[in-house]
Amino acid sequence: MAWLEEVLMRLTCRPCVGYRADGPAAVEPTALAALALAAHGRHEAARPALEWLARLQSPDGTLGITATLRQPHWPTGWALLAWSVVGGGEWLRGAIDRAAAWLLAFKGRPVPPSPQIGHDTTLQAWPWVEGTHSWVEPTAINLLALKASGMGRHARSRDAVRLLCDRAVPAGGWNYGSREVLGRAVAPHVQPTGLVLAALAGEESAAPQIASGIAYLNRNLSSEVTTASLGYALIGLSSHGQEPEDAPAWLEAASRRTLDRGGAPYPLSLLALAASGRRCPWFGHPETLVPPKDREYS
Amino acid sequence: MPHDDSSRDNPSHPRGPGLDRRALLAGTGAAALGLAGFALANLWRRNRAEAVLLAKHSHYDGPLAASIREGLVATGLDPHWVRGRRVLLKPNLVEPSRDVPYRTTHPAVVAAAAEVFLDWGAEVAVGEGPGHVRDTEMALVESGLEEVLRAEHLRFEDFNYSDVATVANRGRVSRLSEFSFPCAVLDADLVVSLPKLKTHHWVGMTASMKNLYGTLPGAVYGWPKNVLHHAGIPETVVDINASLPKTVAIVDGIVGMEGDGPISGTAKPLGVLAIGTNPTAVDATCARMMALDPARVPYLALAAGSLGPIAESRILQRGERWQDVAAPFQLLDTPHLRSLRPCARVGV
Which residues of B touch A131 (CB under 8 A)? Predict the structure, then answer.
């Protein structure tokens, strides 16, 4: 896989990356780059990314979008995930503890139940921005992060699983977080479905939603699916032991397309992660995501 | 980083005899007189009439650029002012799907607008921060806009992940004190709102003003941009419009959406482009074409006066008469939407 080697070389040379090739380093893409490098055994190459993330952390445990855009704090979960699964030692323990403590205290805003809104608006998981409602993708990101840091059984993680199950759309899969509005079903999307499937790996209570989500992805994946959506979808499927037969060809085509357009590191990292299949360090291993003994966190 | 655009030139033709602000200030050197002139100019701006041009187009392969050119000039945009300026085209790409082309701005309208501004010598870019999807490449591909960008060699700015700068909320209708806009938006001399004309299940309709929600980055406001929802949709629509650089509107009403818009409605062929240099007046005219009362559409009621006129008597019709192209848009049958119909048309 020449494309994969090219992507890994790029990330090795520049592990602190942004959403676009010429953009400033950002927390989410850098965390994904670290995860991608580690997924392919390049832990040392990932270390500068982990260090950069640690330098960006505020004393309250949070990280913003970039070094200059310090809020909102939704990328904190990505940093916690990267530190927890790639860190490989105690040197990040303080950063991990601060990020985890902040995440555990940070909740989405409940909204009074309404017949106009189809989901359970009283469930609290995580919002994108402080003071707003809980949504699917930040909840999935933070659930992954808490599981990876040994808190898969924490009450907040269990709440997250409940919310994700509640937000699954009737047709199968997930979108940004609405399943019905004014009594009408809302359509699922590929990218959030892949991310949620990864977050729900090992969750037996979510078996029906997982099965529907997998079926939705299998119906909708093709060579035409765009890069980030493809990456998340394959990551999500891999976390449940599935890999479409055409996945290698899709990954190569998407990587070539992305490289030809300037090589945005964020989607390239997702493709590299997806290419690692079940070797990916943050999914597909329920035994690591829901460890037998959680660390003690209040 | 605060952003000050108070020194922008006026892109329109000279307006109104005896109330040229620069002429009023010239030679006085007196701050008091300057303040009085500014207040007078604002008062005049609030009360002046605005023009809106409606152009019939039953298909997307017609002479859209000619209509856009005519419409912008007829409603006050000076092509000479545009030369050398940075013009940012902002289509609506919310949850695009090849299967639902009437959900998002047709790429032919974007291409036609680009053609007009490029012909006038502007530096043209396209930008959007899709509201529900984080995969912006998907939004470009599914909407068909990617082909236009490639064919016309247009730069695209993904507002969801752009570098941002903070400006004060100049509307001050909602509780938000400031906005974080992409630098590409704030650096533009002219923002062109290019929405799809649709019903909206929360606020009744979406056209050029609500479309500008998409100028705000998802990375800062979320997916959906829930910060704005919690601060009030009508209120933040007005505040965003008040805080942006100069904005003009080109509404794609050739095939709009009715019913459960802005995502799940059905196609509504209306066969019209609505064009104007005052988005409030353009949206008020769109409301009338949809058989909605502009004064009952919450964001238009809030914008009336401060951002532009909504009264029919204050909107100068150019091109087609709105009465000749109007066709009632179906709304979901809910109380908050039924109340948007003009009294005489309840039950339409």
Answer: 227, 230
The predicted-structure confidence for A234-259, as pLDDT tens digits, reads as follows 999 999 999 999 999 999 999 999 99
Cβ distance B134 to A182 less than 8 Å, yes or no, reads: no
Check CB contact under 8 Å for A137 and B223. yes
Structural domains for chain A = 2-289 (1.50.10.20)
Contact A127 B226 (CB under 8 A): yes
CA-CA distance, A211 to B345, in Å (whole number)?
48
Please identify among residues 18-57 of chain A the ones whose CB lies closer than 8 Å to any CB of chain B.
18-20, 23-24, 26
CATH number for position B152: 3.40.50
Domain boundaries, position B322: 50-338
pLDDT tens-digit map of B121-136: 999 999 999 999 999 9
Which residue stretches of B126-225 are H helix?
Answer: 136-143, 145-152, 183-186, 218-221
In a domain, B1, yes or no: no
Domain count, chain B: 1
Least confident residue range of A53-57, A132-136, A180-184, B116-120: A180-184
A-chain CB neighbours of B230 within 8 Å are 109, 131-133
Closest-CA distance of chain B to residue A293, Å: 34
User: Which pTM does this prediction carry?
Assistant: 0.91
Residue B258 φ then ψ, to 5°: -125, 175
* CA atoms of A222 and B138, how far apart (whole Å): 13
Whether complex ipTM tops 0.90: yes
Given CB atoms, is B177 within the 8 Å cutoff of chain A? no
B34 domain-assigned = no
The DSSP secondary structure of A63-103, one letter per residue, reads --SBSS-----TTHHHHHHHHHHH--SGGGHHHHHHHHHHH
Span B8-46, pLDDT tens digits: 445 554 333 333 334 333 444 444 555 565 556 556 666
Q: Do the domain assignments include residue B18?
A: no
Burial class (CB in 10 A: 0-12, 13-18, 19+), B22: exposed
Question: B44 in a domain, yes or no?
Answer: no
The backbone torsions φ and ψ at residue A237, rounded to the nearest 5 degrees and listed phi first, read: -65, -40
Low-confidence ranges of chain B (pLDDT < 70): 1-46, 344-348
Whole-number pLDDT of residue A296: 39
Chain B residues closer than 8 Å to A189 by CB? 95, 132-133, 135
C-beta atoms of A109 and B230 within 8 A: yes
